[in-house]
Design a protein that fits this description.
The protein contains 13 helices and 13 strands. With about 375 residues, it is α/β, with parallel strands linked by helices.
Length: about 375
């Protein structure tokens, strides 16, 4: 049963485990980099790891915050460590929002971005990312921001389309929002931004109106570490720290110590991930361009990230299509209604190029048969 995206995704992981005949193109991150990770852990085992574990972490391991600070240019005092980006987004919404507050959220969007503020009692209004480049209409933002709007929630690089917002665009969005409400904050999820060769600085460094969230999960494939962080001005962090004590207690000293090793070698992981996604983007373009030319799918191929979000013309809801693909063609993709666009699908291309090629081959064959059977 498809309740919500994360429930569906977790169930898919269990259902597909051990089924080597099924190719999943659902994941929104690169594959876990076990070869590099295991080598680095071997290089830092024994006394070195025990030394890292000897440091207390009541407010997050200081060394890890310092390494994040060094990587991204953010003052370590303005960083809070979290149990991944999901936990970070919850803590921000819990601290900044009260029942009845209004929140603007991009659409299409990662479902958690609007379900989390609803969970704490806020009222969500959507602002459209418009085809073909999934940019914003600034007039729509101006119309929808009110005195009750506390938060504007965006992703950059955009999940699910791979669209990128430049620094200039971000500052324009903030300017327009502030013209209607001076107190508004923009929560910017930047978990995919490290895919960019010329990565801009974190938005929190542009203006105090931005709160940024990131993690080692998407670009680096290290969800096992649950290493995420929030960067914001001190007045916001003070309240988050207070609430975090009751939500999380204290983070895992072991996982945080392991994360320091990864952070010290982040360039190696980043290069590996960028190379994989660059090759896969070529495979994606090669195999999907014929479908685009035949109008079997709509949607520009992404310039960044590891996600593609095409529309399936003539199909109002892709649930039946995605069920057909996995049952008859042994390939799994995510239905678009999880992201606010039921006539789309989301394809993740962060795995091996060979796996992607075979998965897309099955997808193309299955799609064409499904459309023919549906009279489309």
């Amino acid at each position: 049963m498809k309740n919500d995206y994360l429930t569906w995704f977790k169930n898919q992981l269990l259902e597909l485990h051990g089924k080597e005949d099924i190719i999943s193109l659902v994941s929104s991150s690169v594959d876990e980099p076990w070869t590099v990770f295991n080598q680095q852990m071997s290089n830092h085992s024994g006394k070195d790891l025990m030394q890292r574990l000897s440091e207390p972490n009541p407010w997050g391991l200081s060394k890890l915050k310092e390494l994040i600070s060094s990587q991204y240019g953010i003052n370590a005092q303005n960083i809070i460590l979290t149990q991944g980006a999901t936990n970070a987004i919850f803590l921000i919404c819990q601290c900044l929002l009260c029942r009845g507050d209004e929140v603007l959220v991009e659409i299409p969007c990662y479902e958690l971005l609007w379900k989390t503020p609803e969970l704490v009692g806020a009222r969500v209004t959507f602002i459209s990312r418009r085809d073909p480049d999934y940019s914003f209409d600034l007039k729509e933002i101006a119309q929808k921001v009110s005195e009750k709007t506390r938060l504007l929630i965006l992703t950059n690089i955009h999940n699910p389309t791979g669209s990128f917002l430049s620094v200039e665009n971000l500052l324009k969005i903030l300017e327009v929002a502030r013209s209607k409400n001076k107190e508004i904050k923009i929560l910017l999820d930047e978990v995919y931004l490290d895919f960019l060769e010329d990565r801009p600085e974190p938005a929190v460094l542009l203006d105090k109106g931005f709160i940024t969230v990131s993690s080692l999960t998407k670009v680096y494939g290290l969800s096992i570490l649950r290493c995420g962080w929030i960067a914001a001005e001190e007045t916001i962090l003070r309240q988050i720290r207070y609430n975090q004590v009751f939500v999380d207690g204290i983070g895992s000293r072991y996982l945080e110590a392991i994360s320091t090793i990864v952070m010290e070698n982040l360039d190696e992981y980043r290069t590996l991930s960028r190379n994989i996604v660059s090759k896969n983007r070529q495979v994606l373009a090669e195999m999907m361009t014929p479908l685009l030319k035949k109008s079997k799918i709509y949607g520009s191929l992404p310039d960044a990230g590891c996600l593609y979000f095409p529309e399936i013309p003539g199909v109002q809801n892709t649930d039946a299509l995605t069920d057909y693909l996995i049952n008859e063609h042994k390939v799994c993709v995510a239905p678009g209604w999880f992201f606010g666009k039921p006539n789309h699908i989301r394809i993740g291309f962060g795995g091996s190029p060979n796996k992607l090629r075979e998965g897309l081959k099955r997808f193309i064959k299955g799609l064409e048969i499904f459309l023919k059977q549906s009279g489309l």
